[in-house]
Please model this.
Amino acid sequence: MNNVRKVCDDLYWVGANDHRTALFENIFPIPRGVSYNSYVLLDEKTAVFDSVDWNYGNEYLHNVEETLAGRPLDYIIVNHMEPDHCASVGLMHQAHPEATIVSTEQAFQMMDQFQFDFGDAKKQVVNEFDTLSLGKHNLLFVYAPMVHWPEVMMTFDTTNGVLFSADAFGTFGALDGVLFNDEVNFERDWLPDARRYLTNIVGKYGPQVQAILAKAGTIDIKMLCPLHGPVWRSNLGWFIDKYDKWSKYEPEEKGVMIAYASMYGHTAYTAQVLASLLHERGVHNVAVYDVSNTHMSQLVSETFRLSHVVLASVTYNLGIYPIMHNYLMDLAALNVQNRTFALIENGTWAAKSGDLMEELLNTQCKTMDIMSDRVTVNSALNEGNRSDMEALADALAEDILGKKSK
Model:
């Protein structure tokens, strides 16, 4: 018995689902697991596209063998050699020494660095826009450097319009029997993980994603087969538009993220008061996060989603609260830009965090707009802060709704 699903004529999913790994890349929590997608194409010649994490090599090999049904394997095509997709290629080569491994020159160099042992395997280096015929199906190879490793390529089947898109258009989350995007409520159940995946892993490389989207616009894509998450066979434009916004660092939605760092609860209370004031003014897309107990990948994802960010931080050792500082440095490292920030600072004897956060945003980040309506709290919110809090809420509401609140 195998775990294989038909993608379309001649093409089959033969991947694996992982619910045992807690942290993807040992960084990002994946409570819903993750899939490792691999595909087999049956034509006059046969090909397998990528592989799976080493821990799932045996079940993967079983799926491939059942799909080949005794046929030889002609090609192993490696679009992306990161170990979660390439670690089982050696196992596949052992089972099918007759197969030729196809990839980029840089990918083969990196496979050597990882000491993936392919023995005396036949290797074929492909350049951009090289082609390979399997019979009825003709494959076109397209380079996609830094989406999100430098050796990445994508493979386009010009016969049926399938794009094997490597890590692009992927998402966290195990498939658990699902294969296609239209078998789930993707916007409700999968979009947050798709956003968190793209923004944290590929977010730094927006220009490179834009370059591959430009290439994709020149070919007639009918289906997207990524290395993680569902296969896209419908509504492709909707998902591609998300990638376009994320990679151009454009806010996906108008709204406010309030990220607060609080030691004893007073800054947290201030954040809650601001959230209430915003809702009173008609701003209902508001998300409030404690940076101390929200994973950084979620904070980054929400920053990509929303247009406005309020940073509310205590002053700690005359500096920014450490976890808030880490969050801001992550935004800088991921090249996040085109957001509007507002600042709330708190300090008992020296409220310095506001100035320091503004300096960091101005020096480390690009094209960030910092609102002038700063709020300074001395230890705890009091009646003296009322006018400043209301002024900040008014300014945010006007900026988001395009009109002054009543």
Summary: The longest strand covers residues 306-316. The chain has a mean pLDDT of 96.
